[in-house]
């Protein structure tokens, strides 16, 4: 008999109470409060997702209380030596993450985005860590911005659902093992 396996949340944003414009070490080790907003830590995410096959679900909510989710049947990140390179399959909800597949994690003090001409974590990410690729179609770790519409690359972004300059109200990233 195969039992139902619960989700492990590794990122949660909903009120801006935790600063996500952190450096490499903070994203490596994790920050925030598990009862509030947090990032679990890239080392922990790597350790969890490299023990077996995992899937990713991302829950999003806009400022009109509309919700969507994206689900990816494949998700893992590589170790720190590989700069926590993202490995993700094709998803749903406008699929804002598969664009970032096979890209390395960048923070304001570790430029791994591969653009060469500028540093996405500073220029587009407001210093939030993410798997940048010239620069992003999504970034759920940018500084929190109240109210949705804007004119800059700040706020929680999932461009294929909400548009390029719309800041989403809340996001949750969670994983669970793929069941046989």
Automatic annotation (TrEMBL):
Signal peptide: none
Pfam family for this entry, one: Fibrinogen_C
Fibrinogen C-terminal domain span: 1-179
Classification via PANTHER family: FIBRINOGEN C-TERMINAL DOMAIN-CONTAINING PROTEIN (PTHR19143:SF459), FIBRINOGEN/TENASCIN/ANGIOPOEITIN (PTHR19143)
Protein name: Fibrinogen C-terminal domain-containing protein
Species in which this protein is naturally found: Branchiostoma floridae (Florida lancelet)
Organism taxonomic ancestry: Eukaryota, Metazoa, Chordata, Cephalochordata, Leptocardii
């Amino acid at each position: 008999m195969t039992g139902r396996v619960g989700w492990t949340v590794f990122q949660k944003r909903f009120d801006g109470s935790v600063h996500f414009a952190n450096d490499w070490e903070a994203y490596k080790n994790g920050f925030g409060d598990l009862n509030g907003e947090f990032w679990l830590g890239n080392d922990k995410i790597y350790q969890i997702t490299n023990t077996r096959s995992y899937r990713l679900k991302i829950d999003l909510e806009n400022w009109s209380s509309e919700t969507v989710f994206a689900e990816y049947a494949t998700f893992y990140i590589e170790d720190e030596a590989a700069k926590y390179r993202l490995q993700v399959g094709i998803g749903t909800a406008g699929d804002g993450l598969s664009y970032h597949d096979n890209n390395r994690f960048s923070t304001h003090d570790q430029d791994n985005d591969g653009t060469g001409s500028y540093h996405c974590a500073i220029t587009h990410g407001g210093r939030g860590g993410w798997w940048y690729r010239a620069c992003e179609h999504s970034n759920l770790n940018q500084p929190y911005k109240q109210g949705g519409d804007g004119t800059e690359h700040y706020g929680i972004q999932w461009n294929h659902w909400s548009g390029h300059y719309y800041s989403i109200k809340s996001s949750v990233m969670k994983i669970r093992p793929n069941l046989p």
